[in-house]
Every structure is written in structure tokens, then in C-alpha cells.
Amino acid sequence: MTKIDELINEIENYLDGCKPQLLSGNRKIVVDRAVLDEYLSQLRYEIPDDLDRCKRIINNQDAIIEDAKEQAKQIINAATIQNNQMLSENEVVQKAQEQANAIVLEAQEQARDIMDYADIQRNEINIQALQYTDQLMEQAQAMIEEHVDNIQAKYGEFINSLQGMYNEVLENRSQIQEDLPEED
Predict the structure, then answer these.
(1) What's this model's pTM, rounded to 2 decimal places?
(2) Distance of alpha carbon 18 from alpha carbon 58, whole angstroms
(3) How many domains does the chain have?
(4) Is residue 169 domain-resident?
């Protein structure tokens, strides 16, 4: 479990432990903004660490490819050396040439296979890193949307409540003004 997953679980546990807002039918909760800001700050701090980890994975694939290239060069060099040694012998020159060519071809084929495999691995790692990053961003987006919705709902109820009080004061003043004698 990553640090981000742990933080998300902590936020969920914190939200589950918050008290329900009065008169909301347990649909809304009272959240300590400082605590929520601290969780969001920690989440912002951890996301770059996970992105750096993904970059290191991607950078490792270059090392794998370089290693594969080096192995291919060594195989080709060994085959070339063996080919040159066989050419120096008189009666075996023709046969050695054919064997050397076969070894070189086999080495080149192995090198291509290694390179193809390394490319496939690199592409898979890239896709996994992008999917993981997208998943983290999706979780962060969902969390932020949920909090924005909760905050908007709370302020909406507050404004409606103030508007109701304002209308009641206006109505009471209107009645009082009707009851006041008119000034001459």
C-alpha cells in the first residue's frame, strides 16, 4: 500500500468519524477545515514522490536497453573474433566462414530479439506508470470534487437560512409599519 493510499484511507476514516450536521438528517457532516487542509497538504506532498518513483522505473528501462545493446555487441564481437580466427586456417577457411556467418546471423537475431523484448518491456512500464499516475490523479480529483460539493451544499443551506430570516424580519417590519399611526 502506497503512502497516498494510506492518506486516502486516513481521510476516509476521518470523514467517517466526523459528527453529523444538525438538521441535515445525517447526510452532511461538520469537518474541521484545518485537519482536512493538513490531509490535502500531505497528499500534495506525496503525489510528486510517486511520480518520481514512476520516472525512476521509466529511466531503468533505458538501462535495460543499454545492457541489451552491450550484450548484443559482445555477442557480435565474439562472433567476429571467432570468424577471423577461422579465416586464418587454410583448408577450413570456407567452412569456418560459413559457420562464422551463421554465428554472426544468430547473434544479430538474438540481439534483435533482446532489443524487441526490451522495447516491449519499456512500453509496458510506460503504460503502467501512466495508468498508475492517472489513477492517483483520479482519486485526488474525486476527493476534491466531494469536498467542494460538501462545502457548496453547506454554504447553500446557510444562505437559504439567512434569506429566510431576512424575509421574516421584512414581514415583521411591514406589519409593525401597518400598525403604526400615520404621521400628520
Answers:
(1) 0.37
(2) 41
(3) 1
(4) no
